[in-house]
Write a structure and sequence with these properties.
Elements: H1 2-7, E1 12-13, H2 18-23, H3 25-31, H4 34-48, H5 55-78, E2 91-94, E3 103-106, H6 109-133, H7 137-164, H8 180-203, H9 211-235, H10 237-240, H11 245-272, H12 277-290, H13 314-339, H14 378-383, H15 398-411
Antiparallel strand pairs: 1-2, 2-3
Length: 412
């Protein structure tokens, strides 16, 4: 949990210089954007400078700012002939996923909307980590599901819309949160961690859990994390080098840990139901092998965690290994004295759990519907202050109308 918090940072945003903000004051007033953008900017800049800022506050500020951005987009879409700026409007964001701090600029309104949603998603993930550290696993799971829903909306709706409109923005010129492959991958990752929190919720409850169900859920977590790596490699390979390598160490660690835990819980379920003592012992052996530190990357087992943020988990890992070894010794003793069940050297293929169970789903995320603002060109606005000319006099007959025309011609 501590490593999760270190890996997921909230996005940061830098406002333009003060002079430019003042020149756009009428623009902000028209769309009601002044206060929401000020609040979001203060929180993100403060967090960027190391000020203590609650992730939930950042998520709320981003959510409050989003309708204003969406209203600007809708307004420009329905009134393109009168949507004019007297100078460039530039949006500037720094990614919350990339390892290197770098600011990306764009004049695209869709860029501002996408990054605001990405900012809210990363803030939700940060809030989820805080809940996890406090032991509030159910709340943490809900926050991760919410973050997954936001990235799903970006990957399946907002970003494809941007691309379909013929955007000329190159991938290298935008943060990772605004790339389809990255959003799809992080949606899957956050769902995996949400399920991890759900499993923790089950395990802290009094009583004995249903071991077979927990084993399937643990394998589901490993499957989801493997999907995250697969999507990154296939759809966003150029983005992987921009992410802190410690995140991928964490993912590799989590995949093998949860495969080991899956074997452990399945073994406990088999032993408790007296189904096959020998198979239970073989599965516990397999669990112990999966949580050993591997000698090289080609072997199964956990990656080396020294000199990484995961080093703080060394004692917990030692305790887990000791617990599994103790259970195995007790089982082997009972089997040799009481049950005399044959222990297979390897777990038979037909007895292995082939696929994990994925229980959690992304929380649907909708962008609030808004009405467009009425735009008026300067020439039209100026005419509003002039007196309206009276209508021409009505004529009761063609003859009167002809005399009036003749009078005007004579005056000319």
């Amino acid at each position: 949990r501590r490593c999760n918090q270190a890996c997921f940072r909230g996005s940061s945003f830098q406002m333009p210089p003060k002079s430019k903000r003042d020149q756009g004051s009428r623009f902000k007033k028209l769309f009601g954007v002044r206060e929401p953008i000020r609040r979001l900017s203060e929180l993100l800049v403060g967090k960027d400078k190391g000020t203590s800022v609650a992730y939930e506050s950042v998520a709320t500020a981003a959510k409050n700012y989003l309708p204003s951005v969406n209203r600007i987009l809708i307004t420009c879409k329905v009134q393109p002939e009168v949507a004019r700026l007297d100078e460039k409007l530039v949006f500037e964001w720094c990614s919350g996923i990339e390892h290197e701090k770098k600011y990306f600029k764009s004049e695209a309104l869709m860029y501002e909307l996408v990054m605001t949603v990405g900012c809210e998603a990363m803030a939700k993930a940060g809030s989820a980590c805080d809940y996890s550290i406090d032991g509030e696993f159910a709340a943490s799971s809900r926050e991760f599901q919410a973050a997954a829903g936001m990235f799903q909306r970006l990957a399946t709706d907002q970003l494809p819309k941007w691309i379909s409109r013929g955007s000329s923005v190159e991938q290298k010129d935008i943060p990772l949160e605004s790339r389809v492959g990255v959003c799809e991958a992080f949606k899957t990752l956050f769902l995996a961690i949400a399920q991890q929190m759900a499993v923790a919720t089950v395990l802290i409850k009094p009583g004995v859990p249903k071991y077979s169900l927990v084993g399937k859920l643990c394998l589901g977590i490993a499957d989801q994390m493997e999907t995250f790596v697969s999507v990154m490699r296939s759809k966003a390979p150029e983005s992987m080098e921009k992410i802190d390598n410690n995140l991928f160490t964490l993912i590799t660690f989590q995949i093998n840990l949860h495969k080991g835990l899956s074997n452990y819980f399945m073994a406990r379920g088999i032993w408790e139901t007296h189904a096959d003592y020998g198979l239970a012992i073989a599965m516990m052996n397999g669990a112990i092998q999966l949580i050993k530190t591997r000698e090289h990357s080609g072997m199964e087992g956990l990656p080396e965690i020294k000199k990484t943020p995961l080093q703080s988990l060394s004692k917990d890992l030692t305790d887990l290994r000791a617990h599994m070894a103790l259970v195995l010794r007790e089982w082997e003793k009972d089997n040799s004295q009481i049950y005399f069940s044959r222990v297979p050297r390897t777990i038979p293929e037909e007895k292995k759990l082939q696929k994990g169970l994925v229980m959690v789903k992304p929380t649907p995320y909708d962008i609030e519907e808004v009405e467009p603002a009425l735009l008026i060109l300067p020439s039209a606005r100026a005419s509003l202050g002039r007196p309206i000319a009276p209508p021409p006099p009505a004529h009761n007959s063609d003859e009167e109308y002809a005399r009036e025309l003749q009078r005007r011609l004579n005056m000319g």
